[in-house]
Write a structure and sequence with these properties.
Its EC number is 2.3.1.234. The protein is an alpha/beta fold. The chain has ten helices and ten strands. The longest helix is centred in the C-terminal third of the chain and has 30 residues, at 235-264.
Length: 343
Amino acid sequence: MKVLGFESSCDETGVALIEVPERGAPKLLGQALHSQIAMHQAYGGVVPELASRDHIRRVLPLTREVLDQAGVALNEIDVIAYTQGPGLAGALLVGAGVAVSLAAALGRPTLGIHHLEGHLLSPFLSADAPEFPFVALLVSGGHTQLMRVDEVGAYEILGETIDDAAGEAFDKSAKLLGLPYPGGPHLARLAEQGDATQFDLPRPLLHSGKPDFSFAGLKTAVLTQVKKLGDAPSEQQRADLAAATQAAIVEVLVKKSLLALKQTGLKRLVVAGGVGANSLLRQQLNTACAKRQLRVHYPELSLCTDNGAMIAMAAALRLQRGMADLQPAGGFEVRPRWALDAI
Ligand code: ATP
Ligand code: MG
Ligand code: FE
């Protein structure tokens, strides 16, 4: 069985094709991605209307590219999956509209996928795929959650952020440091030249005893330091502050992940979402988990942020388990706000 997946929840248009065997690992046959980052950079963030329009421009050429890569014809596709939510309504409608139209033309069913389930299951695209059950640390631009995952579709939220997401904390701090949008990777790069001990930043809720998070106070603390540095901070001061910010975020993510593992008694951690690409986070999780004989899994670096492959993979894993809510092509609705534990 072949499943085509579309992702268009925010500022990446992603398309991917996966071969789904009855059992065994689904295989990625092709994928293509267009990031709109350069287009939104001038505005310092994503402009929803521009995002929707650009998805429209990109989605069909990317689909052709994927089919060419895979050497598969349109009518060989069995199921068409798309991100149904959460995300920007207009952006979601483009992916959903294209998926349902294509399905109608081909006489095939569609499958709406939860974007965060896509992130969560993205490590199944790696050679070293995880086994259930596991604790998942989902750290993206809009979400920071620790989850207990017993199987595909069995998601229990153990704790989450009460204000900003980890990716948001990276991006907002980076903006204060004068770095371009999205600031996470830029801040991480600047931090390589810095000394994290030069600034003392808060670790909110670190000792709450629960796997919850709060990052809004950190952003305020960074703002206070930026103001203290004045109009012309040295390159070294900026790098030191970047390093201190990254260290604060990473320390909280690592300690809370270990807490969730301890409280659940599970021995396996899966990291997913854009911040999962952060190398300090990976280093510290690797060290902490090795020390405690815990396994840790990540998506491939290029699959941490939004992409079509993770949507097609989530669809594939659901299809294999008979858990796919297939819909005949027809009307459709997107769900801009949609909790993962509600699916
Ligand atoms: P959501 O999935 O919650 O709807 P999103 O799709 O916008 O949000 P992702 O695409 O998963 O989020 O991740 C984007 C985030 O990851 C941005 O905040 C970005 O700064 C951050 N990010 C990407 N690479 C790195 C890195 N190396 N270090 C830190 N943060 C990073
Ligand atoms: Mg994005
Ligand atoms: Fe995402």
